[in-house]
Write a structure and sequence with these properties.
With about 130 residues, the protein is α+β, with helices and mostly antiparallel strands. The chain has one domain: Alpha-Beta Complex (Ribosomal Protein L22, Chain A). It is about 40% helix and about 30% strand. The strands form two sheets. It has a three-stranded antiparallel sheet. The chain has a two-stranded antiparallel ribbon with strand order 3-4. Helix 3 runs antiparallel to helix 4. It is flat, with a radius of gyration of 19 Å. The termini are far apart.
Length: about 130
């Protein structure tokens, strides 16, 4: 059991909120595994290098993640007043989202299931 009143617990949880600039994309139409291939490459890199990597990466996920990174950089500039030269990718991860289930007709009246996977992508930046 938690100690204290419900409002006190909420207040304590919100007090240590993360102030680093970030961007999130929910329900992206790609699997977590395919998104992680691209996210693993840019993790820990500075923002300009990561943008360069994503621009020339042939995977589909890289175009989606590039837009997300640009959004996180814009958030850092406009909301937090940070300079782009000092930013680096502190955290980036993909979490599993709901899977859309579809049916593919097969021979002799059978049906195979197609699973169209989705993911939630997050990028957190920080200053060096």
């Amino acid at each position: 059991m938690a100690k204290g009143h419900r409002s006190q617990i909420k207040r304590a949880r919100n007090a240590n909120k993360d102030t680093r600039p970030s961007a999130k994309l929910s329900y992206a139409r790609m699997s977590v595994q395919k998104a992680c291939y691209v996210l693993d490459v840019i993790r820990g890199k500075d923002a300009q290098t990561a943008l360069g990597i994503l621009t020339y990466n042939p995977r589909y996920a890289s175009s989606v993640i590039k837009k997300l990174l640009e959004s996180a950089i814009a958030n850092a500039e406009n909301n937090n007043g940070m300079s782009v030269e000092n930013l680096y990718v502190a955290e980036c991860f993909a979490n599993k989202a709901p899977t859309m289930k579809r049916i593919r007709p097969r021979a002799q009246g059978r049906a195979y299931r197609i699973e169209k996977r989705t993911s939630h992508l997050s990028i957190v930046l920080d200053e060096r």
